[in-house]
Amino acid sequence: MQRLTDIAFIAQVLTTGSERAFAQLVHGHQEAVRRFLRRLTAGDEMRADDLAQETFIRAWQAIGSFRQLSGFETWLLRIAYRVFLDDERKRKKEQLLQTPLPDHLEEREQESSSFAMRHDLDLALATLSEAERTCIVLQCMEGRSMKDIAAITAMPENTVKSHLLRGKKNLANYLKRNGYYGNV
After folding, report:
1. pLDDT at 5 over 50
2. What average pLDDT score do residues 132-146 get?
3. What whole-number distance in Å separates Cα of residue 67 and Cα of residue 85?
4. What is the pLDDT of residue 115?
């Protein structure tokens, strides 16, 4: 049902340039894009929102290139991943890799154990390579198939599988070293 609705809105955008139709596409997919980018940015919500905005700007500019080879959301997540990689390269050039947590996040962490666990997971994800983190987030947190992950990241499926295996092992080791035991 969502795919048909997306196609109808895309057709409106392409034929009439309807900003209202594009706004409906954004509304229908913005949470998935923001959630994906929040995980890639290790929980940095402001950065993730900025990257999501850039994602939708690029999607508007490139919507004519959407060929329905995958779902619209998969296409958007591929754009989001490229936006993230561009931003990472820019940050590395500027040597701004270490950003301290905002004070309000540290206060919330003390108040909520579920926030603390999510924060620990974000820190653990931040220790992975970009490729490992992306594959883990897409599979484990976004529920994407191997085929979708390969399409989003432009990696062969076997490479995705390798990144997942290595990433899960590294994630489990990090969490065990930091007090989480059992089946991680």
Report:
1. yes
2. 90
3. 23
4. 61
What are the structural domains, with CATH classification, of the chain?
1-99 (1.10.1740.10), 101-184 (1.10.10.10)
Q: Tokens 């500019």 label which residue?
A: 61
CA distances to 1, 117, 169 from 71, rounded to whole Å, are 12, 32, 30
Distance in angstroms between the alpha carbons of the first and the last residue of the chain: 35
Mean pLDDT of 88-106: 60
Give dist(CA 75, CA 56) in Å, integer. Answer: 11
Q: State the sign of the Cα–Cα–Cα–Cα dihedral 48, 162, 168, 71.
A: positive
Taking the C-alpha atoms of residue 152 and residue 82, their distance in angstroms, rounded to an integer, is: 9
Beta carbons of 13 and 28 less than 8 angstroms apart: no
* Calpha distance 155→161 (Å, rounded): 10
